[in-house]
Amino acid sequence: MPEAFHFLYPHWLWALLPLALLLWFMRRHGSMNNPWASVCDRQLLPWLLNGEDHRGSHLPVWLLAAGWVIAVLALADPVWEKQPQPVYRSQQSVVVVLDLSRSMLAPDLPPSRLARARYKVADILQRSEEGQIGLVVFAGDAFTVSPLTNDADTILALLNPLSPSLMPVQGSRVDRGLALAGKLLEQAGIARGNILLITDGYDDARALKVAKELHRKGYTVSVLGVGTAKGAPVPDGSGGFLRDDKGNLVVPGLDRDALQRLAKAGGGKYRLLSGDNSDIDALLKTGNSPLGDDIKATDLKTDSWLSRGPWLVLLLLPLAALAFRRGWLVVMVFMIGNSLFTPQPVMASGWDDLWLRRDQQAQKALASGKPEKALTLAEDKLQRGTAAYRAGKYEQAMQSFSGEESADALYNEGNALAKLGQYEAAIKAYEKALSLRPDMADAKHNRDEVEKLLRQQQAEQQKQQGQQGQQGQQGQQGQQGQQGQQGQQGQQGQQGQNAAAEGQTGETSGAGEKQDAGAEAKSSGGTQADEQSAGQVSQQQKTGSQADKGQNAQGPAGKQGKQSEPGGSQATPLSTEQQLAAEQWLKRIPDDPGGLLRRKFLYQYQQRATPPTDGRQAW
């Protein structure tokens, strides 16, 4: 006990200093002695006071000191032993269902709907400190990226490769995504869970039926809408845009009413994707379980100090009883004064309301770096928008500024739009502000900067589309050039080199056929001509790469007149030029971090033997 004894809140011991000062002051000024001693000789006091004994007059003071010390020690909370306590963990489970249909590539939310959705899922994963979370993706069918787990970092590592190219079949089967999410919750033994659907729309009434069934089982289906009602053309990956069977340009817009009906059927809420976290705050805090139902004790134990301070309060009860005796009201005053040391919620706004208006209080909060507090106090739209902007709530700030037509409001609206990535709208807002106040230097500067960002964004998009379009041409040219060099070397070299080149060509053809089959399975949602073209491009790229490798390995041997061994166990060292050429070819091979997920989804799709899509939209 002596080694472990300490106070949990030792700062309360500073409250003993006022008591010491009070006792010193009373003794200094004679308050603890007889008050007649200051005006009369002490030797005459017994005769003047009729012989009364005043030795007990110090008792209230000492009782006051005793009560003060006991109260301070109780607040400091002495402890000396620990007690094991169970550790509780939240069992709230969330399954995120992410739409990977091709319509998610629409750039109406720059850079694309899918990119913004991935950012939002990353925010959800970073905020999920407790409870389990899983991830399901869907297009023409649904697949599990990660089952329910407490390790959100694992899901975060798998998030970036997610794209429509991973899906073996295209479509927008929201019903299958919801059904798979419900299956994950049931397999984990979760009686009450939440399903968060992130999509840009659906056209199948079966989704409503599945949502109602999940809600009947105790699960909540909430919807986060991604996109705009106007929509945008969908890139097809080859420099053009997606078209339907009639040749019309596909421009999918967000059907907010349909998504609201889906959320209502699932017993959840609907929110539109925003630039801040207000959307996920509203969706994730929606619980369908009573208070405490999702909290369970774990097998872990933690030791906590056993508080002894409350027991010291019992020693104050006799002192409180003495306060009812005549002449002992000072003890009651002490008890009331002692209650002032207990922590009370500080209501600073009461003093501020007395001397400052709400707009002045909001301005004061902004000046002190408290935009959240200023947002609750501000009544003026401009002030509210400024507070929301500084708090990082750009969507709310844009809405506050949009109702005003002053130059400052338009300038601030442009800043909020720029933060949200809506560069064209931001430029228009800056132009309106400059039309009202042409000498606004900040608006000119920000407009020029946003125009640069817009040009960079457009250039990057064009560059990506150009690279995708030139990829097939480069692969075909590489194949023809390398085959010509290989044929020339085969005529000049020896039979061993020709045999090795033929073996590599055979392997390349086999690999090309496998790659072609994989491309056909991946693009089964498109037309047959597109599938064949994609397979030929992949085969040509890989054939050119293999032929180049054959040239690098066989070329020096042919020039030097050396014969390779039948087993090919010895490799000729590459020269510096050949190594650089090989590195250049390797750089041309596109990165495919999602290859494992693609093969996993394809295998699962083949094992299910599910019927193909039923003719509904393939995007």
TrEMBL record:
Pfam families: TPR_1, VWA_2. Residues 524-554, 561-581 have a biased composition (Polar residues). PROSITE patterns: TPR, TPR_REGION, VWFA. This is Ca-activated chloride channel family protein. The chain crosses the membrane at residues 7-26, 59-80. TPR repeats lie at residues 407-440. It comes from the Bacteria. Residues 93-295 form the VWFA domain. InterPro entries: TPR-like_helical_dom_sf (IPR011990), TPR_rpt (IPR019734), UPF0353/GerABKA_families (IPR050768), VWF_A (IPR002035), vWFA_dom_sf (IPR036465). Keywords: Membrane, TPR repeat, Transmembrane, Transmembrane helix. The keyword Transmembrane applies. Residues 454-595 are annotated as: Disordered.
